[in-house]
Design goal:
By secondary structure, this protein is mostly helical. The chain is built from 4 helices and no strands.
Length: 71
């Protein structure tokens, strides 16, 4: 008889949820690329402010796939 391991249920998401939701690295590639280029090559004094629109587009795209990014 094996002991009941209640934590085992939390180690892996159910197979149906994992198959339905794509990985964060596989979505919004164009938006991420544009955001990264802007941040890396910006000549603005504050690149974060200068790239705010592209960051917002990336966040909205990720939200559309069910991912929540920190603010």
């Amino acid at each position: 008889m094996q002991p009941n391991n209640l934590a085992a249920n939390f180690k892996q998401p159910p197979a149906q949820d994992a198959a339905a939701k794509p990985k964060p690295c596989c979505v919004c590639k164009d938006e991420k690329s544009a955001r990264d280029e802007c941040m890396l090559f910006s000549t603005a004094a504050d690149p974060q402010e200068g790239c705010k629109d592209l960051v917002g587009q990336y966040r909205m795209c990720m939200k559309g796939y069910g991912f929540s990014l920190p603010g």
